[in-house]
Structures are given as structure tokens and as C-alpha cells.
Amino acid sequence: MTAAKACDAKTLITLAKADTTGLAGDKAPSAIFTSSTPQNFVALATLLTLEPTETFDGTIQPKVFSERYAQDDAEWNKVVAAGLLTKAAATKMRQDDGGYTGYRVGIAGDGTWTFFTSGR
Questions:
Q1: Phi then psi for 67, rounded to 5 degrees?
Q2: What is the pTM of this model?
Q3: What are the boundaries of each domain within the chain?
Q4: Using one digit for the tens of pLDDT, what is the confidence trace for 105-114?
């Protein structure tokens, strides 16, 4: 989280490469963490402050991305309160996409950073 908060692209790129992290449709880490994409640093740092939920191979954040919490109003409110979505965007996402398709991050049980992405 420190590297994301500091917008430390070099460290994030190194971590993503070492963990073979899936980034936004298999984009290169150097394309995701640049000075022209500050929203990615903010989103990652924000996600890492949210409580994760367990999955079969680790954790994901935010909880609302998981099937278990997909229709949980309180979890939707948490991503809105965190600034990841506006209330209107959350409502539209629930209606149009049937669930949360915003920024999300996955961490394997061994600490490997498995993914950071958004969209379907």
C-alpha cells in the first residue's frame, strides 16, 4: 500500500512483474502505473484499505465484487464512501452489469498479488 500511496511506479511495476499480476486485461505494468494514470495509484491504495473477503485462493477487495456480497447494500455503500464510485455510478453498475465491475484487487494466500483490474 505504501508504494501505491506514494505513486511509486517503479516499485509497483517491479512487484507486478515479480508476481505476474494480471493487470487490466493483461496490460503491461508500465502501462498501468504511469504519471498520466494517477487514478490507478489512488484506486489501488484505496482498495487496500478496505476489508478483504476470502476466496478459494486468497482474498479480493472490495468485498462487493464477491458473489457473497454482490447484493449487499452495505458493501456497495462502502465503495461509494471510499470514493471508488459515486452513488449514481453504483446504482447504474448494479442495474446494467448485475454486480460490481469497478476497480478490484486480488491477493493469493501466499501474498502474491494476483490481479488489479476494472471492468467486465
A1: -55, -40
A2: 0.90
A3: 2-117
A4: 999 999 999 9
